[in-house]
Specification:
Layout lengths: L3 E15 L4 E8 L3 E8 L13 E9 L10 E4 L2
Antiparallel strand pairs: 1-2, 1-4, 2-3, 4-5
């Protein structure tokens, strides 16, 4: 898979796993990319809208290199 750079994308959250104290790995189904892994920095609290089957909108989606987790600039609940 090549480098990813999307302006905006919609995701359905499938599940999440804590990764240390300040982050989590989220499995999401992307409208354009299919099933993807996403790195989510959380600080001390998990965002409330990242529960399974939640619909979220991500802006500034990208991945450095051919492999690895997606990252985003802004994540919000989709309406």
């Amino acid at each position: 898979m090549a480098t990813v750079d999307l302006e905006a994308d919609r995701w359905i959250i499938l599940g999440s796993v804590p990764h240390g104290d300040g982050a989590m790995i989220v499995r999401a189904f992307s409208e354009t990319l299919g099933s993807v892994g996403v790195w989510v920095p959380t600080g001390k609290r998990k965002p409330r809208f990242l529960h399974p089957l939640a619909l979220v909108e991500a802006h500034g989606v990208g991945r450095r290199g051919a492999e690895g987790l997606l990252r985003y600039k802004e994540l919000a609940r989709a309406v």
